Amino acid sequence: MEKNHFSATAGYVTNADGRVLMVKSPRRGWEYPGGMVEPGEGLEEALAREIFEESGITARVTGLVGVYKNLTVDSVIVDFLCEYVSGEPTVSDESPEVGWFTPDEAAALITNPMTAIRFARMREGIHSVVAFRKDPFANTVEIVSDTIL
Q1: 48 in Cβ contact with 121 (< 8 Å)
Q2: Which of 2, 58, 106, 147 could form an SS bridge with 101, CB 3.0 to 4.6 Å?
Q3: How open is the CA angle 35-37-42, to the nearest 5 degrees?
Q4: 3-state secondary structure of 24
Q5: CATH of domain 6-148
C-alpha cells in the first residue's frame, strides 16, 4: 500500500521592532506563515516562497528551531527562525488577514493546540524534535516523543 507522506515548513518571522508576522488561514485560524514543500524544492526555498505567497513579505532564514512529526497524517513539519528583509503585509487567497504582532499578541491569536506549542518553542528559541498525534475532531494533541536539543 502506498503511503501519502508530505513535508511542510514554517517560519517565525520577526522585524526590527521584535514583532512577529502572522497570517490568518481560513481553515486553521491565525498562524505563522509556512506550507508544503514542492517536489524538487529545498526547505528554506519552500519557506521563502510560502512566506511571500501568504504575506507579501520577503524573509531570510536565520536558523532551524524544530522538527515535528505528525503521526496522524504522516507528515513532517520543519520550523525555522527568520528575519524580515522587505515588503508590506499583503492579503492573499490563502491569507485573508496578515499583520505584525507583538509575541504576546501573536500567541493569543493562535487556537490550534500544536501550532501554539510550536510557536511557544520558536519564541523561546527551544530546539526540539517532537512526534505527536492530533485528534482533528476534539482539537487535541498527544505528544508521543519530545526531545529538547
Answers
A1: no
A2: 106
A3: 125
A4: strand
A5: 3.90.79.10
